[in-house]
Amino acid sequence: MSAAQLIVYILVALLAGLIAERLVGAALPGGVLGAILAAFLGIWVMSSVLRIHVPGDLDLAGVPLCTTVLGAALVLVVWILLLQATAPMRRRWHR
Questions:
Q1: Residue 52 neighbours by CB under 8 Å, 6+ apart
Q2: Which of 21, 25, 31, 33 is most deeply packed, by most CB within 10 A?
């Protein structure tokens, strides 16, 4: 992985984290750092584990943009929805 690819991954992770938090209306634990780490997980799962690539995907410094954005957004939205679904259970244990 080159420095240019790492910069693209970081930018995609930042943008996906901010967009996912705005769409769902909740914040991830750990704030921006938590969102970036979750987005990196999504990017890795989508591009390396599942090896799903969008046909005709735009490449920036060798990074498939649509694939990385979809992977990051998918993990972030699922994580936020799981946190919202388990919120009543977590509140009950803290009383």
A1: 46, 67, 71
A2: 21
Average model confidence (pLDDT) across the chain = 79
Round to whole Å and give the CA distance between 5 and 21.
24
Interatomic CA distance for residues 89 and 45, integer angstroms: 28
DSSP state of 95: -
DSSP string over 36-54: HHHHHHHHHIIIIIS----
**Domain residue ranges in the chain:** 3-93
The predicted structure's pLDDT at residue 89: 66
Q: Whose CA is closest to 21, among 11, 6, 32, 9?
A: 32
DSSP secondary structure string, 52-90?
A: ---TT--EETTEEHHHHHHHHHHHHHHHHHHHHHTHHHH
